[in-house]
Amino acid sequence: MKKSFLKHAAVLGLAGVMGLGVATTALGQFNEPGIVHADYSAQGFLDQIWPSAQQVATDNGLYPSVMIAQAMLESNYGNSKLAAAPNYNLFGIKGDYWGAYVAYQTQEWRTDHYETIVQNFKKYPNMYDSIMDNAFKLRNGISWQPTRYSGAWIENTNNYQDATAWLTGRYATAPDYNTKLNNLIAKYDLTQFDPQVSNESGVVTVTSNGSSTYNMYAGPMSSNGDWLGNGTAWQYDKKVTLYNGQTWYRLGTNQWMNGSNLSVGDSASQAPSGTGIVKVKSAAALYSNAGSGKTGRTLDKNTEWRYFETQDVNGTTWYNLGGDQWVSGGQVTVE
């Protein structure tokens, strides 16, 4: 994945020599890679990969813009020998893919200079598998450091620039890796393929039999354990539209709900009267009634929730968070 590929090593992989796997590097003379022949223009390569990259990246909680820029940079728009058939390695990922690999000389950044070394790179059956494998790597890291690339995940960033900055020095050794990626993203308007985030605000009403909220709108999502009842109304402050047309609404900190379970009002002015926001001071228990009926569910510290009604019970104010969901004023602060 590091710049640049200089020569194709005339090396037969160990798997081929020992009969332990698939030998993918043919015997022959050193070549002068870089470019096989320019099968792709920049736009042609973009047109080829963006549908798969958009779907795979979004489903894994990654920025499609970054994924596409990586492929452009690492493969020279699909024209490097490593990226071309029969290798299809768009990202310069080292190792082997189910035993298949190809050996190349490459340059690695060493503190203050580049050093040329021979390394094995994965060989894929097609471009899609290369894109999938890159997403798996970014989501799962390496065996001894599974969160190595977590700073590039959508849920841990504010924008794609945060992701490219995190990858520099971790995914690639080149010290200007993020600058190169950012330039490509800007030049080819790659953010058009990212989830489209709007700061639109308003009120949504649960239309299904009830629905859970989730910690994120893309990638490996998990339920917060918060069940919002049918007919309850909630304020939202962000809306996200995904590549497949799904819409998600943010109802609070790390509280997202799929728009298929909601009806949407016209504006924030439709918020029910007497509502407000409470913030959990520490893990707060939920009750089915004001002052009684502990449900066994809790709200995480520092999460914010809209309330729709208050009741005073023995001098303590209780806040209704929708349906049969109450929290004690002793465990929250009013924002």
Automatic annotation (TrEMBL):
Pfam families: Glucosaminidase, SlpA. Gene3D superfamilies: 1.10.530.10, DNA polymerase, domain 6. InterPro entries: Glycosyl_Hydrolase_73, MGlyc_endo_b_GlcNAc-like_dom, SlpA_C_lactobacillus. One of its GO terms (molecular function) is amidase activity. Residues 1-28 form the signal peptide. Keywords: Hydrolase, Signal. The keyword Signal applies. Residues 35-194 form the Mannosyl-glycoprotein endo-beta-N-acetylglucosamidase-like domain. Belongs to the glycosyl hydrolase 73 family. PANTHER family: PEPTIDOGLYCAN HYDROLASE FLGJ. This is Mannosyl-glycoprotein endo-beta-N-acetylglucosamidase-like domain-containing protein. It comes from Agrilactobacillus composti DSM 18527 = JCM 14202.
